[in-house]
Write a structure and sequence with these properties.
6-stranded antiparallel β-sheet, alpha+beta, 3-stranded antiparallel β-sheet
């Protein structure tokens, strides 16, 4: 279990690109089909752009047609925190459990034969760590 990473906004601003900062630290949402990983099919591990924690496996990625990278489950146990938000528009926010960065939201309209979950994640919050081709 890794300790939580806590940094000031100024530090994050120095370390992240403006797009990454907006999503991770300001809970921003990138425009659909604008992100780097919407159509990526490469094998590997999607890591947190803020702290490098492993968040999603390419094996759980699927094409949801929404314009954001979509996954059926998070990698490992406790890699992400889920937080209920909103009273009227009920959504479940997905945050990196290690640095508390905002990643996206999870919905229950995912592929039914794969658990029914759809993690709708911003590309800017992710960094693909490609699998060794060896
Ligand atoms: Zn993180």
């Amino acid at each position: 279990m890794t300790a939580k990473i806590e940094k000031s906004d100024d530090t994050w601003r120095d370390e992240l690109t403006p797009a990454q900062f907006d999503v991770l630290r300001r809970s921003g949402t990138e425009r659909p089909f604008a992100g780097a990983y919407v159509h990526t099919e490469e094998d590997g591990t999607y890591r947190c752009a803020g702290c490098n924690a492993a968040l999603f496996s390419s094996e759980t990625k699927f094409d949801s047609g929404t314009g954001w990278p979509s996954f059926t489950e998070a990698a490992g146990d406790g890699s992400v925190d889920l937080r209920q938000e909103g009273l009227i528009l009920r959504r479940t926010e997905v945050r990196c459990a290690t640095c508390d960065g905002h990643l996206g939201h999870v919905f229950d309209d995912g592929p039914e034969d794969r658990g029914g979950q759809r993690y709708c994640i911003n590309s800017a919050a992710l960094k693909l760590d490609p699998e060794d081709a060896s």
